[in-house]
Specification:
The protein is of the alpha/beta class. It folds into three domains: 14-285, Spore Coat Polysaccharide Biosynthesis Protein SpsA, Chain A, CATH 3.90.550; 297-360, no CATH class; 375-479, Jelly Rolls, CATH 2.60.120. Helix content is 21%, strand content 33%. It is built from eleven helices and 30 strands. The strands form seven sheets. A six-stranded antiparallel sheet has the order 20-21-22-29-24-27, with no helix packed on it. Helix 3 packs across helix 7 (229-240).
C-alpha cells in the first residue's frame, strides 16, 4: 500500500447521501466460453441461466434498491446495438457511453465519473461487470447498503467474495483491520498457486477480488488525477467533446485514445489507503470457463447439466448444451459438450480453460467462427445463415416492426427476396414495392435498394444471394438511420 496518500474527503451525513448510479462495464470478448460466446456476441449478452442475459440480470438484481440513479453502461462500437436492445427488452433506460478504444477499466471509469458529474453532481458509482452471476440478490443488496456510508464518506469500497475453495484462477484481497461492516485492505494478491490458495482459504483472511466497487464520482477523479493525471485529463476532454448519436454518447476518439491503459486495481486501488473491502457471500460466479458454469446450475440425478435437445445415456457429471440440433451421448463422464449451428466443442471439464488455444488457432487461420454466429443480430432485427455454396447463399431475415435496413447496393451480388411473414416495403431503384406473404422480388447487382417493415408484426423473408463474392463487406450504405453509412 502507498502510505503517502491522504484523505481528501469529508464525511457526509446520512440524510445527504448522494444517489447511487449503476455503472456497468459491458466490454470484453468472453472467448473462454466459445463456441457460444463470440467476439461480436460475447458472454454478457448470452442467456446462460434462464430468460435473461447476464447483462440484463446484472441490472435487474438492483431492482428495489433505494436511491438509484439512471444507469451508465460503457461499451464499444461493435456491441452498441446489442446493449441498447437488451436494456430495451427489460424496460430500462440508461446512458450508453461508447469507448472509441480499449483502455482498460481505469480510463473507462474516469470517463463515466466525468459524465456522472455533469451539472456539478457527484453521485456514488456502483461499478459492476456485466457478465457475472449473483444468485442471492438480497445478500448482494445488503452488502451494497453496508458500503454506502463508507463510499459517501470518501472511501473506495470493493466487494470481496468469501472463498469457497482454493481457487487459483482469481486474484485475492487480504483484509486488514476491521472497520464497521468491513475491513481495511492490506494488499491485493495476484492469482496464487494451489498450495498458496489453500493457505488463503485456511486463514479466513482473504477474499476473491470481484471487480465490483462503490465510490463517489468526484473522489475517484480527485484521487486518480493525483495518481495518474495521464488518465484523467484525456478522459475529461473525451467527455467534454463527446457527441450524441441516436441512443449513444460517443466519447471523443483522439482524446480517449490518449489515456494510459490501466485497470482500476493497478491505477488506484493498490495505491490508496482509503480502500475498504465489504465481505460478500451471494452465490457469485464470474463464469470464467465452461466448467464453472456448472456451479450456478442445477444438475439431474446423474449429475448432468443439460440444455436443449439432449439425450444422455449412461452418462454422468457432464455439461451438455444443444443450440440447434439433437445431441446424444453414451458412457461419458465429466465432459463438456457445447453445440452451436456452426461449431461443436467437446472437452474434459478440467481442461475447458484450454478453449483459448482453439480460439487462437481460429484467429490465426482467419476463421469467422470466432466472430459471429450463423444467427447475427442487427439494429433492425437479425439474419440467420441457412446454407452457403459456390456463388450462392441463403439467409432468413427478420425485420422488427417499424425498422428498416440501410439504403444500399452491392458490387458483387444480386438478391432474391421472398416474404414468408408480414408485409415488406421495398425500395428498388426508382420503384417502391409492397410485398405480402408468398410474394417476391429480385434486386439486380448494383441496384440501390432498401427493405422496410411498416407493419406491427415481425417481417420474415428468405434471401437468396448469388454472385462471385458474398461477404458482408460488400455493402455500400448510402443512407442509414443507425449512423452506419460511410
Amino acid at each position: 500500500m502507498n502510505n503517502n496518500t491522504h484523505n481528501e474527503s469529508s464525511p457526509l451525513p446520512a440524510h445527504n447521501q448522494p444517489p447511487v448510479v449503476p455503472v456497468l462495464l459491458c466490454g470484453g470478448s468472453g472467448t473462454r466460453l466459445w463456441p457460444l460466446s463470440r467476439s461480436q456476441y460475447p458472454k454478457q449478452f448470452l442467456r446462460l441461466l434462464g430468460e435473461h442475459s447476464l447483462l440484463q440480470a446484472t441490472l435487474l438484481r438492483l431492482q428495489g434498491f433505494p436511491g438509484l440513479g439512471r444507469p451508465v453502461l460503457i461499451t464499444n462500437e461493435a456491441h452498441r446495438f446489442l446493449v441498447a436492445e437488451q436494456i430495451r427488452e427489460i424496460g430500462i433506460e440508461a446512458d450508453i457511453l461508447l469507448e472509441p478504444a480499449a483502455r482498460n477499466t481505469a480510463p473507462a471509469l474516469a470517463a463515466a465519473a466525468q459524465w456522472c458529474r455533469r451539472g456539478g453532481q457527484s453521485p456514488l458509482m456502483l461499478v459492476l461487470p456485466s457478465d457475472h452471476v449473483v444468485t442471492d440478490i438480497a445478500a448482494f443488496q445488503e452488502a451494497v447498503a453496508l458500503a454506502l456510508p463508507h463510499a459517501a464518506a470518501g472511501r473506495f469500497a470493493t466487494f470481496g467474495i468469501t472463498p469457497e475453495r482454493p481457487e487459483t484462477g482469481y486474484g485475492y484481497i487480504h483484509r486488514g483491520a476491521a472497520i464497521a461492516d468491513g475491513f481495511a485492505i492490506d494488499r491485493f494478491v495476484e492469482k496464487p498457486d494451489a498450495d498458496t490458495a489453500q493457505s488463503y482459504l485456511d486463514s479466513g483472511e482473504y477474499y476473491w477480488n470481484s471487480g465490483m466497487f462503490l465510490f463517489r464520482a468526484d473522489r475517484y477523479l480527485q484521487t486518480l488525477n493525483r495518481l495518474a493525471p495521464e488518465i484523467t485529463e484525456p478522459a475529461r476532454t473525451a467527455v467534454d467533446h463527446a457527441k450524441l448519436d441516436l441512443d449513444f454518447v460517443r466519447l471523443d476518439g483522439e482524446s480517449f485514445s490518449a489515456c494510459r491503459a490501466d485497470s482500476i486495481d493497478y491505477a488506484l486501488m493498490e495505491k490508496t489507503d482509503d480502500g475498504i473491502v465489504i465481505p460478500l457471500t451471494a452465490g457469485w460466479n464470474d463464469i470464467g470457463a465452461w466448467d464453472t458454469l456448472c456451479r450456478s446450475t442445477s444438475a439431474d440425478f446423474y449429475g448432468n447439466t443439460c440444455e436443449g435437445d439432449v439425450i444422455a445415456h449412461d452418462s454422468t457429471n457432464n455439461l451438455i448444451r444443444a443450440e440447434s440440433r439433437l445431441v446424444a451421448t453414451i458412457g461419458l463422464t465429466d465432459m463438456v459438450i457445447i453445440e452451436t449451428a456452426d461449431a461443436v466443442l467437446i472437452a474434459p471439464k478440467n481442461r475447458t480453460q484450454e478453449v483459448k488455444a482453439i480460439v487462437e488457432k481460429l484467429q490465426k487461420d482467419g476463421r469467422t467462427e470466432i466472430d459471429l454466429h450463423t444467427h447475427v443480430h442487427r439494429p433492425w432485427g437479425s439474419y440467420q445463415g441457412i446454407v452457403q455454396g459456390d456463388r450462392y447463399q441463403v439467409k432468413r431475415i427478420t425485420v422488427k416492426p417499424g425498422k428498416q435496413l440501410s439504403l444500399q447496393k452491392h458490387h458483387h451480388r444480386a438478391e432474391h427476396w421472398i416474404v414468408v411473414k408480414g408485409t415488406a416495403q421495398v425500395t428498388r431503384g426508382e420503384e417502391i414495392l409492397l410485398l405480402a406473404e408468398n410474394e417476391s422480388t429480385y434486386i439486380p447487382l448494383g441496384v440501390v435498394h432498401r427493405l422496410e417493415n411498416l407493419g406491427k408484426i415481425d417481417l420474415e423473408m428468405i434471401e437468396v444471394q448469388s454472385g462471385g463474392y458474398l461477404g458482408e463487406d460488400d455493402i455500400v450504405r448510402l443512407e442509414d438511420v443507425y449512423g452506419r453509412a460511410k
